[in-house]
Design brief:
The protein contains 7 helices and 4 strands, in the order αββααβαβααα. With 213 residues, it is mainly alpha-helical. The protein has one domain. The protein is globular. The relative contact order is 0.17.
Length: 213
């Protein structure tokens, strides 16, 4: 496949060799542990109600496991609350699109409130993810995106996140063009990592959730 996307207007040479100081790294890990512990406690309180809703309106497993690409390109298993019908990918792996008929009624609520992402707090607690970072992509899409988008794999130099700069600045992506735009935000975050930008992302994430985006 020939590369057919424009080069990103980003100065790769400006990405620092060391992205964060030791103090920032340790404090960010502490935030990850505290936030993921709180998230898992909230999940524990909500599980009975979500289980009952699924039992009544969308029978099937409560959780859904999916392989994602993480730090340094390593694969790990992400955990989510199931929001689609059982065997949703029996015809192959495709991006989820707006109005996707595979999403259940309960799943639509879970996605709108982002509650389907709460189990990923377990991935954060294990150290496979961070609270803030680029969203982890599926390995089925990464080779294609890396071939068509210059510098795509540079997003793997940090842990993937539950939320991130791209998530609060851009809508849900379902195309190569969208992935290219989101990559610009991911690389901007990598280059500018600080408590200030992390705080902005957290506040804007709450805004996204409250607006039901």
């Amino acid at each position: 496949m020939q590369q057919n996307s424009r080069s990103l207007p980003w100065a790769w040479s400006r990405l620092p060799q060391t992205f964060v100081t030791s103090a920032y790294s340790y404090s960010k890990r502490l935030l990850d542990i505290l936030s993921s512990s709180l998230g898992l406690m909230l999940l524990g309180l909500l599980i009975p109600f979500i289980w009952l809703a699924n039992r009544l309106f969308a029978p099937g497993p409560l959780f859904y496991r999916q392989t994602r690409v993480g730090l340094h390109g390593r694969h790990f298993t992400i955990l989510k609350l199931r929001s689609m019908i059982v065997m949703a990918e029996r015809n192959g792996v495709v991006w989820t699109v707006e109005g996707d008929s595979r999403i259940t009624g309960v799943g639509r609520f879970l996605r709108q409130t982002h509650l389907d992402e709460l189990p990923q707090c377990w991935n954060i607690l294990k150290g496979e993810m961070s609270l803030i970072g680029p969203r982890p992509e599926r390995p089925e899409f990464v080779p294609m995106l890396a071939e068509r988008i210059e510098g795509y794999t540079k997003r793997h130099v940090v842990k993937p996140g539950l939320t991130g700069w791209a998530q609060v600045n851009f809508e849900y992506g379902d195309s190569v063009k969208d992935a290219q735009i989101k990559l610009k935000y991911d690389l901007e975050y990598i280059a500018r990592q600080s408590w200030w930008i992390d705080g902005v992302i957290i506040l804007r994430t709450f805004g996204v959730i409250l607006k039901g985006r």
